[in-house]
């Protein structure tokens, strides 16, 4: 998927996101440039920096969704962070480097899950043998006798005993495969993971210090402590298979590959970047906001962040920033940071036409979600075209008269519209329901007429 052409990337994004063609084109080019860089001569490869993007537009127009779907397309490690939760070194808040550490953890989990999938079959076989050992323990030496105490007849009989055990084991294995033992209970030794929680509230780099504290405390605890649990054979098989899969995975190889993946394919989505714009020479909170920008600068420019798994270079991580920029503008960011986001894309507000398409066209369209939810109760719901257009019109009107929250308004409207049906669904006699324009009008009548009510309800 990482070798997709820009046109193919846009076409994949179109399946989930309506409109915003310019933003899709920009991210598609940025993604394709990564592929191009990998195929450039080695001496020039490291010189080509990613072209970071700022998405400018009100809330609910698809900024986050574009970045998230982009990461899923390429199976890249993707993390979304709010710039406003970071504060300058010395102030109370999260350290900006923590987002790179979080990205690496995510990358490790992705590759670990993939590697565990590869060894799944082998792990299952080992787990099966361990279950059979629990169900049919190995026979001890006859009466725990020493070898020199065995007489001739006992020595001859022993192989026969082994053969009998083997055939019993194979019978048990067949029963296990057929699921006949699934509901039987066994005692299983599981690692005792209960450990005191240690939270570290502090400034720069202290998340890592918190991890070291946990390691230190872990050393004080008794090693290898485990507890017995009574579980069914089916559950025991799953627990042991997971345990064995973790043992079979080479974590050193996983960490090495994860660091490379985070460095070369990682995407960090910096939301609410407009909230950290501060006026030049300001005081109070403004000083801290500008400080956050200065702390972000080396990471976006390219630096090395130390993590418990090793150093991570941020030179080729793609940063996508976004903000509504209602009260500020991108030029209010410090000049150095502006220079690290060369691509600016403005996303337009959504209206009735886009809302109608959002409700019906995407693969995960809102109407399809409600139809699927109600089908679980045996209720078949359908929406007439005029009703859908009416919902879209109400969404546009409410956004214009109150706070504009974009497509998120549709979620509120749909919940209000179908509230009675969702509540009564298990007991409804007529299982076929058609939502028409009159039904929508009736539901939203009072709210549309009373602006204060629409602010309160929608």
Account of the 3D structure:
The protein is α/β, with parallel strands linked by helices and 458 residues long. The protein folds into three domains: 6-113 and 258-346, Rossmann fold, CATH 3.40.50.300; 120-248, no CATH class; 352-453, Helicase, Ruva Protein, domain 3, CATH 1.10.8.60. It has 19 helices and eleven strands. The chain has helices at 6-14, 21-38, 42-45, 63-74, 98-118, 120-135, 152-177, 206-220, 233-248, 251-265, 285-301, 335-339, 352-360, 366-375, 385-401, 408-417, 419-424, 437-449, 451-457; strands spanning 53-56, 78-82, 185-191, 226-232, 267-271, 304-307, 310-313, 318-323, 343-346, 380-383, 432-435. The strands form four sheets. A five-stranded parallel beta sheet has the order 2-5-8-1-9, with helices on both faces. A hairpin with a 2-residue loop joins strand 6 and strand 7 (310-313). Helix 2 (21-38) packs parallel to helix 4 and helix 15 crosses helix 16. The longest helix is centred in the middle third of the chain and has 26 residues, at 152-177. The two termini are 40 Å apart. Mean pLDDT is 81; it is low at 141-160 and 198-204.
């Amino acid at each position: 998927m990482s070798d997709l052409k820009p046109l193919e990337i846009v076409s994949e994004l179109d399946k989930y996101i309506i409109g915003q063609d310019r933003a899709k084109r920009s991210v598609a080019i940025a993604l394709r440039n990564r592929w191009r860089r990998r195929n450039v001569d080695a001496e020039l490869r490291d010189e080509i920096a990613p072209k970071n993007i700022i998405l400018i537009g009100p809330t609910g127009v698809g900024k986050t969704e574009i970045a998230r779907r982009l990461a899923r397309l390429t199976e890249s490690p993707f993390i979304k962070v709010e710039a406003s939760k970071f504060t300058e070194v010395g102030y109370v808040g999260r350290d900006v480097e923590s987002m790179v550490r979080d990205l690496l953890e995510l990358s490790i989990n992705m590759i670990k899950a993939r590697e565990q999938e590869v060894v799944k079959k082998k792990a299952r076989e080992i787990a099966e043998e361990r279950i059979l050992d629990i169900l049919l323990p190995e026979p001890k030496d006859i009466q725990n006798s020493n070898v020199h105490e065995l007489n001739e007849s006992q020595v001859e009989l022993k192989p026969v005993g082994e053969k009998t055990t083997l055939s019993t084991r194979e019978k048990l294995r067949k029963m296990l495969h057929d699921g006949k033992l699934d509901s039987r209970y066994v005692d299983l030794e599981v690692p005792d993971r209960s450990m005191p929680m240690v939270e570290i509230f502090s400034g720069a780099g202290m998340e890592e210090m918190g991890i070291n504290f946990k390691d230190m405390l872990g050393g004080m605890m008794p090693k290898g402590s485990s507890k017995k649990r009574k579980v069914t054979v089916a559950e025991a098989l799953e627990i042991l298979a997971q345990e064995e899969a973790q043992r079979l995975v080479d974590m050193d190889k996983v960490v090495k590959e994860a660091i490379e993946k985070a460095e070369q394919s990682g995407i960090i989505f910096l939301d609410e970047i407009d909230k950290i714009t501060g006026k030049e020479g300001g005081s109070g909170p403004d000083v801290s906001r500008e400080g956050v920008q200065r702390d972000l600068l080396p990471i976006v420019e390219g630096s090395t962040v130390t993590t418990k798994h090793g150093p991570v270079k941020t030179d080729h991580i793609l940063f996508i920033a976004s903000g509504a920029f209602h009260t500020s503008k991108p030029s209010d960011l410090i000049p150095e940071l502006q220079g690290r986001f060369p691509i600016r894309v403005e996303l337009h507000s959504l209206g009735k036409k886009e809302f109608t398409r959002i409700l019906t066209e995407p693969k995960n369209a809102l109407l399809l979600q409600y139809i699927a939810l109600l089908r679980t109760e045996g209720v078949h719901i359908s929406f007439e075209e005029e009703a859908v257009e009416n919902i879209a019109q109400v969404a546009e009107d409410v956004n214009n008269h109150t706070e504009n929250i974009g497509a998120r308004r549709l979620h509120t409207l749909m919940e209000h519209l179908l509230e009675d049906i969702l509540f009564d669904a298990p007991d409804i006699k007529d299982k076929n329901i058609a939502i028409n324009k009159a039904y929508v009008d009736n539901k939203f009548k009072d709210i549309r007429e009373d602006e204060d009510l629409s602010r309160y309800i929608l």
